[in-house]
Amino acid sequence: MLTLLIAEDELIERESLRYLIQQQYPSSIRIVDEAATGKEAVEKAMELKPDMILIDIQMPEMDGLTASETIRKHLPECEILILTAYGQFEYAKKAISFGARDYLLKPISNRNLFDAIDRLSDVILKRKASAERSKKMEDQFAHWRYLLEREFFLEALYTSNHAKRQLEEYLSWLEVESRLFVCMAIDLESGQAQAPSMLNAIRTRLAYHTEHVIGTALGKRIVLLLLGKLSDESVGSHSFRTALTETESMVRKNTGIACHIGLSRVFCDLNHLPYAYREAAAELDKRRTAVPLRKEEAGYPYALEEQLCDRILLEDVQGSAELVADIFHHFTAKRAEFLRQDVRQLCAQIHRSLLQHFGSFESSEVEEMTAELELLSLPQELAASLRRWLPELIAVVGEKRKSNRDELIRLIKAYLEEHVSDDLSLESVSKEIGLSTFYLSKYFKRATGVNFKEYVIQLRMERAKALILFQNKTVQEAALAVGYQDPNYFSKAFKKYTGFSPTQFTSITDK
Fold first, then answer.
1. Residue 267 DSSP one-character state
2. pTM above threshold 0.70
3. Is 211 helix (H, G, I), strand (E, B) or coil?
4. What is the rounded CA–CA span in Å between residue 308 and residue 302?
């Protein structure tokens, strides 16, 4: 429901307007208040922030034009309908220049009033729908930025040169100049679901102590890269260590979960990221062993479990199978009494890891694998069964990743269609949706078969053809509607694409 403020100094006029509007728009417009002076109109508009205002020009304390100008300055999306008994064109022109959407001359017929309100409502509803679509799209792109950053971060931790190049490009796109970095690993004692939600809070906290912080959540572990003018001395300083202590306290306060932080030395080359991560993880292991564990937790191969989950996400069948062998060797050698419990824990963690990575992961494979393992008891049978399931599970991961990437392309195309009249250069679109130009260009070409620039031209020309053919738009109108400010340049681009000038195209289609 839209909201409306009536600003009119005559009581009988206000009551008449209220009655007419309530009768005509009982379920679509709510009158939030009335104002008898221009000053009161401004104050109530600032407080109530209505979608539209009906305001008389001739008002005590502050005239309607001045009030409208003030309101629009602070509430640019508030639509204003000016009501006046003055018929001079100068008043109308001034009202429009002050931001009024429309202008009605008293005495106002009911039909003219309703038509004007309908026009305002249409503008507001279209803008709200567009804003809602943009917000939804923005949220979806934010989710994709998280997933993409997580993917190449995960790959970079396990020596993928391609991922390191992507990470390098990503940092360049973020305008991160320094390549000095520290790897930080933060383990939450429990509550894997809290890791993604804590990620941004931790990044914000640490951003005060370094130039840039990027990272991701891997299971119950948060892995961060702190980049900037770092040195082993600055990382070992009292202020930096205090920041780590404050981070641990913040996590405990916000989640009720204790955490441990492991830190690497300062490195200067992203090729050393796997080594830096291992250093941070090793420091975490030292801190974990200093904390008393329950008997059933002591000796559990958490590090191998984490690596297995990562290898599954990387679609590495051989690496996953090797890790399963290592894990079951550990189970049988050191934890035989907890074998069934450990297998359940392992299956649950694999599922949680997939859920965390993709946001949702509906798959019968995980349930069937878990059910089959529940029926077995011998370590050799359990290990063999899990290894048999790995290719199927990893195939599902690959399908899910492809499906998600197809959805990303759909979102990018939807964004381009929504903003066809805006600047759609590779650089501007990359900034808007939060993907690097390198990734957007390469990935778009791989997914669609055409490069980004060619697709934008195709989109604009097809839209222009439809506007000329079905809506009888002029060349200048069509050019502006698809993002060309210069009609001559548009005509050249149109002819290059279609083989005809816009004029020739119109004459051919008219035949």
1. E
2. no
3. coil
4. 10
434-466 per-position pLDDT tens digit:
777 877 887 788 888 899 999 999 999 999 999
How far the first Cα of the chain sits from its last, in Å, is 47
Cβ neighbours, 10 Å, residue 160: 16
Name the CA dihedral angle for 391, 396, 401, 404, rounded to a multiple of 10 degrees: 180
- Residue 152 parent element (H or E): helix 110-157
DSSP 159-180: T-HHHHHHHHHHHHHTT-----
Task: Read off the DSSP letter of residue 207.
Answer: G
Look at residue 500 and give its three-state secondary structure.
coil
Select the more confidently predicted residue: 477 or 254: 477
The alpha-helical segments, DSSP class H, found in 314-450 are 317-334, 339-358, 364-374, 379-418, 426-433, 437-448
**Alpha-carbon distances of 389 from 198, 328, 347, rounded to whole Å:** 33, 15, 11
Q: Taking a C-beta distance cutoff of 8 angstroms, is the pair 327, 286 a contact?
A: no
Type and span of the H or E element at 187: strand 181-188
Asked whether 52 and 79 are in contact (CB, 8 A), the reply is yes
Q: What is the dihedral of CA 154, 156, 161, 165, to 10 degrees?
A: 100
Give tens-digit pLDDT for 284-295: 877 766 555 555
Q: Are strands 79-84 and 102-105 parallel, antiparallel or unpaired?
A: parallel
Written as one string, the DSSP assignment of 49-109 is --SEEEEESS-SSS-HHHHHHHHHHH-TT-EEEEEES---HHHHHHHHHTT-SEEEESSPP
Which of 250, 230, 217 lies closest to 352 in space, CA to CA?
217
Determine contact, residues 415/434, Cβ cutoff 8 Å: no
- Residue 292, token pair as written in the block: 């008393």
What is the total residue count of the chain?
511
Ramachandran region, residue 483 (left: φ > 0; alpha: ψ -120 to 50; beta: rest): left
Radius of gyration of the chain (CA): 31
